């Protein structure tokens, strides 16, 4: 006759004897107080290349992600804790056991409806948006999206316009004048060119991430900035007007003048599903105060928006109307297509 569940007690439970060397599992991760800190400069198929500086001596250490980190995102620019074989010798692997707190995070989504954020780089100081003035044609909406991403990540934006020998920069730059975005215009990227010298000055001592769609000359720019970078360059298709992806993964390269430049693969879209519109308004301080009188849920691009009166009354300064137009243009990027 079978026994009911209420007839069982703890004496009926078989306890497996402890095996030699086994330890009870715990959710507490080891502190790894002895971990050395590495700076991630490249990621390739589950292997992270890091730069370790101990006592002024640098060495490159390749590492894998420790099991206890699970699927924790680790990207170029991250500072990570390393244990195990951190000698940097050939055919050795260290383990990444933690990711240090990030000072900044540049993120994107596949499109404006995708809830999954993708971290592009960590701990950058400025976002360098590279666009050609011709061949291929500039894509203002993509540039606007990159500006929004920079504001959201609290990175300083820098606009770099290449191929100025094919098209004058003035007409295109006019639409960004109200945003006060610094810009560098380049044509011939020879070592002594004026544009390249100006760009070097803007990048010196900072961690800068370069973004731009394929064919704009981003890899050519990197090769001019870092002589031994040897980044592959491509050409623009005469039929489609699009460039071919030449950079396949992000990589950090040290600049001769100090600082780092992070080259990223060419992009064709930049989703902003993760961006809170209020964070964009915060980067327009002369307008942000005026939103206090807006109706609840105001998108700042509707008839009842209080910003129109704020600007009309002169609270936003002499360029208030142009700044408001620019703000609304950026806000609309969240509801437009994530590509062109």
Note down, in words, how this protein is organized.
- This protein is of the alpha/beta class and 340 residues long.
- The protein has 3 domains: 36-99, Nucleic acid-binding proteins (OB fold (Dihydrolipoamide Acetyltransferase, E2P)); 105-263, P-loop containing nucleotide triphosphate hydrolases (Rossmann fold), CATH 3.40.50; 277-332, no CATH class.
- Helices cover 19% and strands 23% of the residues.
- The chain contains 8 helices and 13 strands.
- It has helices at residues 140-153, 170-173, 194-203, 218-225, 277-281, 285-288, 307-312, 320-332, and strands at residues 36-44, 47-54, 57-65, 79-84, 94-99, 105-108, 118-122, 126-132, 156-162, 183-185, 207-211, 251-254, 260-263.
- Strand 9 (156-162), helix 2 and strand 10 form a beta-alpha-beta unit.
- 34% of the residues are buried.
* Oligomeric state as shown: single chain
- Per CATH, what is the topology of the largest domain? Rossmann fold
Topology order in helix (H) and strand (E) letters: EEEEEEEEHEHEHEHEEHHHH
Query: What number is the mean pLDDT?
Result: 85
Estimated share of beta-strand residues: 15-25%
Q: Globular, elongated, flat, extended or rod-shaped: what is the shape?
A: globular
What is the helical fraction, as a range of percent?
10-25%
Give the N-terminus to C-terminus distance in angstroms.
Answer: 75 Å
Low-confidence stretches: 233-247
The CATH architecture category of the largest domain equals 3-Layer(aba) Sandwich
CATH class of the largest domain: Alpha Beta
How many helical stretches? Answer: 8
């Amino acid at each position: 006759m079978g026994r009911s569940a209420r007839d069982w007690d703890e004496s009926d439970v078989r306890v497996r004897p402890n095996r030699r060397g086994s330890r009870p599992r715990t959710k507490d991760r080891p502190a790894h107080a002895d971990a050395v800190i590495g700076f991630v400069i490249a990621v390739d198929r589950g292997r992270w290349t890091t730069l370790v500086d101990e006592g002024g001596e640098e060495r490159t250490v390749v590492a894998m992600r420790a099991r206890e980190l699970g699927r924790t995102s680790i990207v170029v620019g991250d500072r990570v804790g390393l244990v195990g074989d951190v000698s940097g010798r050939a055919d050795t692997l260290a383990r990444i056991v933690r990711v240090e707190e990030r000072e900044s995070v540049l993120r994107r989504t596949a499109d404006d409806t995708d809830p999954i954020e993708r971290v592009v780089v960590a701990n950058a100081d400025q976002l360098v948006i590279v666009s050609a003035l011709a061949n291929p044609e500039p894509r203002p909406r993509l540039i606007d999206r990159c500006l929004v991403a920079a504001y959201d990540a609290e990175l300083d934006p820098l606009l770099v316009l290449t191929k100025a020998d094919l098209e004058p920069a003035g007409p295109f730059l006019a639409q960004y004048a109200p945003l006060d975005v610094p810009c560098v215009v380049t044509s011939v990227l020879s070592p002594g060119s004026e544009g390249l010298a100006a760009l070097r000055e803007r990048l010196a001592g900072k961690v800068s991430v370069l973004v731009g769609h394929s064919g704009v000359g981003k890899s050519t720019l990197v090769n001019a900035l870092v002589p031994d970078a040897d980044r592959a360059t491509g050409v623009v298709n005469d039929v489609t007007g699009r460039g071919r992806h030449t950079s396949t993964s992000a990589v950090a390269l040290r600049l001769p003048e100090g600082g780092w430049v992070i080259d990223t693969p060419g992009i064709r879209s930049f989703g902003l599903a993760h961006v809170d519109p209020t964070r964009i308004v915060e980067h327009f301080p002369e307008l942000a105060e005026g939103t206090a009188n807006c109706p609840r849920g105001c998108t700042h691009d509707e008839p009842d928006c209080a910003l129109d009166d704020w600007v009309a009354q002169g609270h936003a300064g002499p360029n208030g109307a142009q700044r408001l137009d620019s703000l609304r243009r950026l806000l609309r990027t969240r509801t437009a297509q994530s590509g062109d």
